[in-house]
Design goal:
It is built from 3 helices and 7 strands. The chain is of the alpha+beta class and 169 residues long. A 5-stranded antiparallel beta sheet has the order 1-2-3-6-7. A two-stranded antiparallel ribbon has the order 4-5. The radius of gyration is 16 Å and the shape is globular. Bound molecules: ligand K1U and zinc ion. Ligand K1U binds next to strand 1 and helix 2.
Length: 169
């Protein structure tokens, strides 16, 4: 297994739209193991393949306290969204140190394949529903800061670029 580098905002590769996975094979299972290891090491609750520069529809999530309930969603599709929405504070491993409020549906239903290629349906609410919507946005090339005002977004962009310049010195 390996820890994969996570792309940092405003890297233009985060804007790419992921393609559907064609086959759940050994290559994909190795990638999923690496994504889970990367998410746990970064102390995240989710990770989309886009964030590790793989542009295929794959998400890993673990919102459990014990970090022992990994969820794998391959080719996920939202089949239902609640009318009710809520403001939730979000963070992102691609925008380290930035947290802000985003409106999300309270509950969603998702159809996806698991790591063995079996189709399943998930009914999610609370933090799991928020995390699924955040990760599915990544697969569409959307980072949560796109929901913020242009002023906030530009400040975050400038801060991230400055941090990256300092780190590369
Ligand atoms: O996609 C990612 O970058 C992972 C992201 C998922 C996420 C967190 C919070 C709300 C929506 C989606 C993270 O794991 S950020 C780090 C984190 O563990 C966290 C941050 C804020 C609240 C809860 C957890
Ligand atoms: Zn994110």
């Amino acid at each position: 297994m390996a820890i994969l580098p996570i792309l940092c905002y405003p890297d233009p590769k985060l804007l790419k739209v992921a393609k559907p996975v064609a086959a759940v094979d050994a290559r994909l299972q190795a990638l999923i193991a690496d994504m889970l290891e990367t998410m746990y090491e970064a102390k995240g609750i989710g990770l989309a393949a886009t964030q590790v520069d793989v542009h295929e529809r794959i998400i890993v999530i673990d919102i459990s306290e014990e970090r022992d309930q990994p969820l794998v969603l391959i080719n996920p599709e939202l089949t239902w969204r609640s009318e009710a929405t809520h403001l939730n504070e979000e963070g992102c491993l691609s925008v380290p140190g930035i947290y802000d409020d985003v409106v999300r549906h309270d509950a969603v239903h998702v159809q996806a394949l698991d790591a063995k290629g079996q189709s399943y349906r998930l009914e999610a609410d609370g933090l799991l529903a928020v995390c699924i919507q955040h990760e599915m946005d990544h697969l569409l090339g959307k980072v949560f800061v796109e929901y913020l005002s242009p002023l906030k977004r530009n400040r975050i962009k400038t801060k991230m670029q400055k941090l990256q310049r300092e780190e590369s010195r």
